[in-house]
Amino acid sequence: FVPHVRMMRTDYQDIGLAQLFGLPFAVLRKPIPFDTTTMNFNWQVWDTKAFSLYSRSTDRIDPQGAELAVSAVCRFLARMNVITDNVYGGYESTVLLEEELLTVKSQASGLFVPLVSSFTSVEKGQPLANIIDPLSGEIISQAVSPDVGIIFFAKDDSLVMENEILFKIVGKLHK
Questions:
Q1: What span, in angstroms and rounded, lies between the C-alpha atoms of 74 and 14?
Q2: Beta-strand relationship, 94-97 and 25-29
Q3: pLDDT tens digit string along 96-121?
């Protein structure tokens, strides 16, 4: 992922507070039925501000990503006058609706070889990844960008199944 803060779209979200973390993006997403069982959703329903921070990697140790997340929390606390430390200003967060992200799915199963990573600018039609047949070593499919934008999410595993999400792209904001 591109480091970002997420909030569920309830009647209680506060995107202005989410932007105080100073991460590149603040993402709003529609809750799904499962979310009603989560603490994050219920905190919002009971008028508590609740945020989820996403760093670059979720299943590997990423010291740089962890440092960025800690800085974001410290930045938020400093901007809320909870702590008095001086913290780097961070980004002016761009607000996104999750359903507006462009999705690129695999057209075949095989070995996944990405050609771009998260936070990379891409052009319409640009190759994003190759899917390779593990038996022959030949490229059997290629994922391409559907539009101009920035890679928001990039799959990180070596194996891919057909119809699996490979990339999510922030489309060009000003057309």
A1: 18
A2: parallel
A3: 999 999 999 999 999 999 999 999 99
